[in-house]
């Protein structure tokens, strides 16, 4: 005849081991998700700062706009392609409109 207590203990121990292993896997997954979340927040903050800089420069003067377009191109090459491409497009369109609406200048002396 089987010892009911011994059999129950063996089953409980194997279930406990399985649950501990599953818990360890879930903890590792949670740490990975937290790390990725921190990376996303850092990228988001960097993007916000870049947008603030661009908008600030556009509101002050167009003479720095070319620099910011190049900066956006550099950042787009390292990630965030869609957002920076849209910003670059918007900056170029804004500059183009301002140049087209500017009065013509004469290079000949009056």
Task: Give me the secondary-structure topology.
Blueprint: H1 4-60, H2 65-77, H3 81-101
Structure in words:
With 110 residues, the protein is mainly alpha-helical. It has one domain (4-100). It contains 3 helices and no strands. The model is unreliable at 106-110 (pLDDT under 50).
Described by strand count, sense and barrel closure, the largest sheet is: none
Low-confidence stretches: 106-110
Gross morphology is rod-shaped
Structural class: mainly alpha
The helical percent reads over 70%
Radius of gyration: 30 Å
Number of helices: 3
**SS elements, strand count:** 0
Give the CA-CA distance, first to last residue: 118 Å
Tell me what portion of residues adopts beta-strand conformation. under 5%
Give the overall average pLDDT: 68
Compressed to H and E, one letter per element, the order equals: HHH
Care to give the gist of this entry?
The chain has helices at residues 4-60, 65-77, 81-101.
Task: Name the features.
110 residues, mainly alpha, rod-shaped, disordered C terminus
